[in-house]
């Protein structure tokens, strides 16, 4: 058996400046990786890039391969929530949500895969969401984009399975980051946070590191027989009927 190790792996994490992505960067570095953060927020340094912009992604991934020699792992983590009314929402709003939450994962894979395929080795982990299976009112059309991301995971996994590259998805439930804080702040119900905690079988929401551990496991050779899979990391919320 192989222990979880990312020793000397070049690991690119999109949205790695904050929240879950930042935790992925920290856990990957602990596991021996050379971590490359790609984000629109460069307060944490490294590469500035809007992952929804195809030209920018091509340019930045080209610079990364030049600087590091290759890409071994891609974590497509950058994402945003959506809170649209299906009637009021414009086509531009729709395109913006899907560009960040779905198209960006393909764009980054498109520009990371040539290096992985040339080595005959690589691993892509897409950060989807519990919303790929279940959802909540008021978050249109987030579930559609995240379900699409899980479909992309399956589809891409089969395309590259014979060439040494694995592709998986991790679907977090509620995780303590700015996205969840924003969700709570939008509500005028002061009991919302208590009610969220109450429906969790583990009695709490996740810390970003608890999602990151699963992402890094799937990224590593310890998960060598896992591909095309979606792993829920939701404290049991998605198992619950009552
Ligand atoms: N927090 C949760 O409860 C939760 C639950 C399920 C899924 N997720 C998913 O996890 C991922 C990370 O979420 P988080 O909670 O850490 O959010 P966050 O807002 O804390 O961090 C997101 C990061 O992505 C970056 N980013 C956003 N748009 C970008 C773009 N176009 N190009 C490059 N970088 C961009 C932001 O600057 C930020 O650093 C997202 O895909 C989100 O949908 C989060």
Question: How is this structure best described in words?
Answer:
With 242 residues, this protein is an alpha/beta fold. It has a single domain (10-177, 207-232), classed as 3-Layer(aba) Sandwich (Rossmann fold). Helix content is 43%, strand content 14%. It has helices spanning 19-30, 54-68, 91-119, 142-160, 178-186, 192-199, 208-219; strands spanning 10-14, 34-39, 47-48, 73-76, 122-127, 165-172, 230-233. The chain is globular. Residues 14-15, 17-21, 39-41, 49-52, 77-80, 100, 127, 129-130, 172, 174-175, 177-180 line the site of nicotinamide-adenine-dinucleotide (NAD).
Summed up:
By secondary structure, this protein is an alpha/beta fold. The protein has one domain (10-177, 207-232): Rossmann fold (3-Layer(aba) Sandwich). 43% of the residues lie in helices and 14% in strands.
Features:
single chain, 242 residues, alpha/beta, Rossmann fold, seven-stranded parallel sheet, 7 helices, 43% helix, globular, binds nicotinamide-adenine-dinucleotide
> Biggest sheet, open or closed, and with what strands and sense?
7 strands, parallel
Order of helices and strands: EHEEHEHEHEHHHE
Q: Number of DSSP strands? A: 7
The CATH C-level class name = Alpha Beta
First-residue to last-residue Cα separation: 38 Å
Structural class: alpha/beta
Report the CATH topology name. Answer: Rossmann fold
- Total separate domains: 1
CATH architecture: 3-Layer(aba) Sandwich
Helical content, roughly? 40-55%
């Amino acid at each position: 058996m192989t222990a979880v190790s990312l020793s000397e792996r070049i690991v690119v994490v999109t949205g790695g400046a904050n929240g879950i992505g930042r935790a992925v960067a920290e856990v990957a570095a602990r596991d021996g990786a050379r971590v490359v953060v790609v984000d629109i927020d460069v307060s944490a340094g490294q590469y500035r890039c809007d992952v929804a912009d195809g030209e920018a992604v091509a340019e930045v991934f080209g610079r990364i391969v030049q600087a590091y020699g290759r890409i071994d792992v891609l974590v497509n983590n950058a994402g945003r929530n959506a809170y649209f009314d299906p009637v009021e929402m414009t086509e531009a709003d729709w395109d913006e949500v899907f560009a960040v939450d779905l198209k960006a994962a393909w764009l980054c894979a498109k520009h990371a895969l040539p290096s992985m395929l040339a080595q005959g080795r690589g691993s892509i982990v897409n950060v989807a969401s519990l919303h790929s299976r279940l959802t909540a009112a008021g978050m249109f059309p987030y579930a559609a984009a995240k379900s699409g991301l899980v479909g992309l995971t399956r589809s891409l996994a089969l395309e590259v399975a014979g060439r040494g590259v694995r592709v998986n998805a991790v679907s977090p439930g509620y995780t303590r980051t700015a996205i969840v804080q924003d969700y709570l702040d939008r509500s005028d119900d002061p009991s919302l946070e208590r009610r969220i905690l109450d429906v969790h079988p583990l009695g709490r929401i996740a810390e970003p590191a608890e999602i990151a551990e699963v992402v890094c496991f799937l990224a590593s050779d310890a998960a060598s027989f896992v591909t095309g899979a979606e792993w829920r990391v939701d404290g049991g919320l998605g198992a619950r009927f009552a």
